[in-house]
Design goal:
The complex is a heterodimer of chains A (254) and B (703). Chain A is of the alpha+beta class and 254 residues long. Helix content of chain A is 60%, strand content 14%. Classes of the chains: A alpha+beta (254), B mainly alpha (703).
Chain lengths: 254, 703
Amino acid sequence: MGTIRVRFIVVALVVSFFAVGMAAFLNYFKYKSTIGGIVKSRVLVIGRNIENSVQASLQVGMQFMELGTMNALLSRERASDRLIRGIDVFDHTGQIIYSTDRARVGEKVPVEWTEAAARSKTTEWGQEGSDEFVAGISLKNNFDLTVGYLALRYGAEEVDRAAKIAGREILLASIMSFIGIALVAPLALIVVIRRFERDLRALESAASHLEDRTEPALPTGSAFDSAIGNLRSSLRDANVSLDDLRAKLDSVPP
Amino acid sequence: MLEKNYLWRIYWRLAGVIMVCVVIALAAVSYFSHRVFDRELVPETEQKAATVGASVRALVLKATSYGIDFANLYGVEQTFAEVFEENPEFAYMAITNTDGNVLFARGTEPIGARTHFRNPVVLQIAHETGEMSKAARVGQQYIVSMPINDDGKPLGVLHVGIDAAFVDHVLLEVLLDVVVVLVVSLFFTLELLNFMAGARLASGLGEFARQVDRMKSGDFTATARMRANDEIGRLLRRIDSAIDHLNVRYEFLVGELQDKMRSAVGERREALKPAAAALEQIGKRFRFGSAAQSADGDEMNLNRIRAPLFAFILAEELTRSYLPTYVNQLLVAIPGISPQVVIGLPIMLFMLIVAIGQPYLGSWSERVGRRKAMLWGAVLATIGFAGTAFAFNLYDLLLWRSMCALGYAMVFVAAQGYVLDRTGQQNRAQGFALFIGAIMVATVCGPSIGGILADNIGFRASFGVSALMALASILAITRLPATEVIVPATKPARGPRMREIMALIVNRRFMTLTGLAAMPAKIILTGVCFYLVPLYIVSIGNTSAMAGRMLMVYAVMMVLIVPLSASLSDATMRRDRYVSIGLIISGLSGLLLLLSDSFLVLFGVVFLLGLGQALSIAAQSALVAEHCQEEIRIYGHDAVYGVYRMLERLGNALGPLIASLLVILWGYQGAFVALSALVLFCGIAFTIATQGTDWQPAPHVTQ
C-alpha cells in the first residue's frame, strides 16, 4: 500500500475519531444534564409545596423565625420522595433555622450554597457536590423580599447511575460506529484516490523509462501526461546532443 | 499551478468521502443515543410526573377536606396550566371519576385517552391506596395515572400525560451541536489533509513541476537533495538519477575531448574541431554540473508553520464564545467602574497588549529567531490559559489573560516573520494565504467547539482544553527547522516611531482610511462578536454553545466571501467602493434589532456583520498602499503600515469598551444598535470623503 494512501486513510480515521468522539461527548453530557434537570425539577416540586406553605404562614402574619409546624412539614415532604436525603431552611447568613435533621439546626451551610442562591437570577438555585446535589428556592415574603432559603439535599447516585448506564451505551455505540468507519472509509478512499494513484503510477512508470530512446510514451490519460512528455523530450534532446558529440569524437581517427 | 489545482480537486473529493463516512457514523451514534434517551429518560420523567401528580392530588384532597364536592372543584384547570408552564414535557392532565369520566382536563388529549380511562385496570387504580402510580403508552403520550382517595374512599384518578416527543426535542438541541461538529470536521479534514499529506505532496509535486521546467529550459544541473520515501520521492529520485547519468556522460565526453585536444596536433586537431564546436553548442543549449545550493526545502518548511499556528490560534479562539460569561462569574466590584465595563476589561487588555506589542515584537523575533520567539510565546500562553482555568478572581484573571495576550502577539508576529523569511516576491501571496488560512480555519472551529465544551464541562475545564491546545502547538513548533533563514538584503523590521505616529495621525488621507474605515470595522468586530454576542445570548437564557454557533456564522462568512471580494476588488480597482459597501452593511447589521429581538434577527445581525466585514477587510489594507503613496515615500512602507496596523488594533481594544459603555446606557439591544449606527455613520462619511478626484484608483499599485 502506498504511503500517500496510508496518510489519507489516517486523516479519515483521525477526523472520524474526532467527529464520533464529539458526538458521543455531546450526547452523554446532554443526557446527563437532562436527567439532572428532570431529577432536580422533581425535587423542586416538593420544594414548591414547602414554599407555598411558608408563604401561606407569612401571609397570615407569622414570623419566618417562628414557624412552629415547619420541622414537621419538612419531615413529611422529605418522606414523599425517597430521593431526598434532607431538607434545610437557612437565613441569609447561612445559618440553618429548620431542618429534617435536628442536629443541623444552628449550623452554617457551605458558603457555596449562599453564593449560588445570591448569584441566581430566579428564585431557584442549585449546587452540585461530589456525592450530594442541592436544589434550592429563595423564600420571599409578601413584599418580594427574601426571608430565607430552602435547600433540598438529594443523592447524586440517581443521576450518576443513569449517566453511567447511558454513558456506557453511548460509548459502545460510538466505538461500533468508529469501527464501522474504520472499515468502510479506507475502501471508499481507495476508490476515490484510484485515479490519483494511477496518475502517480503512470508518473513512476514513465520516470523508470526516462532514459529510453524509444518514441514518446503513449498518453496515459493522467494529469501529468504533458509533464512526462516534456521530461522525456528534454532528456532525449540532451542525449541526442551528447550522442552527436560522441559520434564526432569517434569519427576522429586515433 | 497545475499541481495546486490538481491537489485541491483531490482534497475536495477526499473530504467529500470522509464527510459522507462521518455523517453515517454520526447518524448511527445519534440513533443509538436516541434509543438510550428514550429508554432511560421516560421512566425518570414518569417519576417526576408522579411527584407532580402527588402535589396536585394533595391540593385536590385539601379542597375536598373543606367539604367541596369533588366533581365541582374550582380552579383545577388553572392548576394544570401552571404545571404545564413549569414542566413543558407534560402535554396533558386530567382528573376522572371512578367511572372513568373526565371531570377536569387541560392540554392535548391523546387519541384513545377516553377508552384508556375506562379500562378496568385503570379504573381499579382509583381503589388503590398509598403513593402508587401506573404508566401506559396512549397515542403519542405516556399517561401516568394515580389514585385520588380520601381516607380510603375512592374519588377518582389523576392522569398526567408526558409528550413522547419530548425526547426528540432534547435530541434536537444535540443535533444543532452535531451539525457544528460536522462543519468543524470538514475544516479539520482539509487542515489535516494539508498537514499530514498535502504539505509533502504539494512540495513534492511542486518540485517535480519545477524540475520539468528546468529540464525544458536545458538545465540539467544535479541537486543533492534528500527525497522522501514515498511515491513522489521515488519519482524525484528517478529523475535525479537520469540527470546524474546525463551529467556523468557529459563529464566523460568533456574529459575525453580535452584529453584528445591536449595531445592532438595538426590535422588531428583540425578533425577534433567539429566535436569542440558541438560541445560549445551543448554548452550554449544545456547546463550541466551541480546546481547552486538553494534554500533547502523552503516550500516544505513554509507549510510546516500551518500546524503550530492553527493549534495555537485555535487555543485562543476556543475561548471567544464564553470568556465574557466566565469573567462575569469571577466579577469583583471595582469602585467607580460599572460591572459591564469590568466584564470587558480582560478582552480590552488582551487587544491592547497585542496592539502595542506587535510592532516591537516583530524586530525582537527577528533577533532571537522566529522559532524561539514562537516557543516563548506558546509557553507564555500555555501558562496563561492554565492560570485562567484556575483563576481566583478578576484580578489574577487579568494577569493570566495578559500572559495569553503577550504570547499571542509573540506567536503571531513570529509566524508572520517565518512566512516572510521563506517567501519571495513570487510566492509571498501564497505564503500569506497559508498563514491566513490557518487562522481562518481556527476562527471557524474555535468558538463553536469552545461553546460546546463550556456548556458541558464548564468554563474552567474548557480553558484547560485551551492550555492543552497551546501545549500541542509547542510540540508542533519544536518540529520547525532550527536554522533560521536570514534574508540579508532586507532591513531589520522596526516599530513605528512617535514622530511618525503623530505625523500620520494628523494626515487627512491616512486618517480617512484608518479612522473612518479600519478602526470602526475593528470596533464593531470586537464590540459585537467578542463582547455583545456572548453576553447577550446568555442573558436571554441561551447557552455559550449558541454564542459559539453565532460566531461560527461570522467566521464562515469570512472564509467564503473574503477570497471572492479580494479578487473582485483587485480586478475592478475600486477598493474604496468595497470598503464603503462593507462598512454600510456592517453598520446596518445591528439596526436589525430595532425590528425585533428574536433569535433569528440576531442571526441576521451576525450574518450581515460577517458579510460587511468580508467585503471590506481585504480592500482596506490595499487602499493604504494605493492612496498613501506620498506618505509611504516620506515615512517608509514599514512606518505607514506599522501605524495603520497599530491604530486598527487599537480599534480592537476600544470595541469592548465602547460596547460596555453603550450597554450601561441603553442595554444590550441599544448597544448593538448604537455601535452599528456609529459604523454606519463612518461608512457614509468614508463614502463621501472618497468621492474626490484624488481618490480615483492609482494606475500602478503595489503593496
